[in-house]
Amino acid sequence: MDFNSVKEYLLDLQERIVDGLQHVDGKNFLHDSWQRPEGGGGISCVMEEGNVLERGGVNFSHVSGDRLPPSASANRPELAGRGFEAAGVSLVLHPRNPYAPTVHMNVRCFMAKKAGEAPVWWFGGGMDLTPYYGYEEDAQHFHRTCRDALTPFGQELHPRFKSWCDDYFYLKHRKEPRGVGGIFFDDFNELGFEQSFAMTKSVGDHFLKAYLPILQRRINEPYGERERDFQAYRRGRYVEFNLVYDRGTLFGLQSGGRTESILMSMPPIVKWRYDWQPEAHSPEAMLYSDFLIHKDWLA
């Protein structure tokens, strides 16, 4: 396996995504390079108070260490205690307009090392969409693009990774999905290194195709305090998932990663309410009844 090729691709992907988002927003990202005392470092590209993005981050990291964190070996306990090397790009975008959805994407590669043995490697990643006001055409476009990213590598991958995403991005304590899903995969090596890497690259390369048309459709929708209030309330669910369940957040914190970069995924304005329920038949209620459900959006 060629880990340098992975790093080169990820750095290029970060640059392409940042350029695409800057073109839409009209404001530049802050570029912040950092080093990790235990080994490795990264580049955090962050935008706050943009014209379109209220907050967004597109982060590259390449870290290494003597002991694989528990979150990374949870599904493969036989690897616990090995040294590791990991590289990835992770992004979360929180637009200001409540009609524009939040989005998350990441692609990553792990390698677990042990003296005298061949390294064990795998890829992970995916993308998912979290609307505050649902549009069927947006959900369909996002899922169609996810399918297109995977189809060249096997017809069975999209339904499998779509189902994996539905299961993963689910708030068990709320009994509700985080959003309308997308695709998710982890511990993936079944196609061999070159094809597994190619599949992961295809996911990363399809992100702008999946999200920018939706963002551009929604950023000029008129909105008021009601919509902003509901957006802030629903953003609370995003925070709950990231802090309680997200393996990427847990890996970053457990591996001694840079806290500012790890928590850039948090939205800037969030609200919680006690036992709040949306008004019956309202657009807010429709988010729950029509969009926060496990559904085949391409059927």
One letter per element, helices H and strands E, the order comes to HEEEEEEHHEEEHHHHHH
CATH class: Alpha Beta
Rg calculated over all Cα atoms: 19 Å
Q: What's the total number of strands? A: 9
- Helix/strand-derived category reads alpha+beta
Largest sheet: 7 strands, antiparallel
Into how many domains do the coordinates divide? 1
What does it look like?
By secondary structure, the protein is an alpha+beta fold. It has a single domain (3-291), classed as Coproporphyrinogen III oxidase, aerobic (oxygen-dependent coproporphyrinogen oxidase, 3-Layer(aba) Sandwich). The protein has helices at residues 3-25, 136-150, 157-168, 192-205, 207-218, 225-244, 247-254, 259-262, 283-291, and strands at 30-35, 40-48, 53-65, 83-95, 102-113, 120-130, 170-171, 176-177, 181-188. A seven-stranded antiparallel beta sheet has the order 1-2-3-4-5-6-9. Strands 7-8 form a two-stranded antiparallel ribbon. α1 (3-25) packs parallel to α5 (207-218). It is globular. The N and C termini lie far apart (38 Å). The model has no long low-confidence stretch (mean pLDDT 93).
Short structural description:
This protein has helices at residues 3-25, 136-150, 157-168, 192-205, 207-218, 225-244, 247-254, 259-262, 283-291; strands spanning 30-35, 40-48, 53-65, 83-95, 102-113, 120-130, 170-171, 176-177, 181-188. By secondary structure, the chain is of the alpha+beta class. Helix 1 runs parallel beside helix 5 and helix 2 (136-150) crosses helix 3 (157-168).
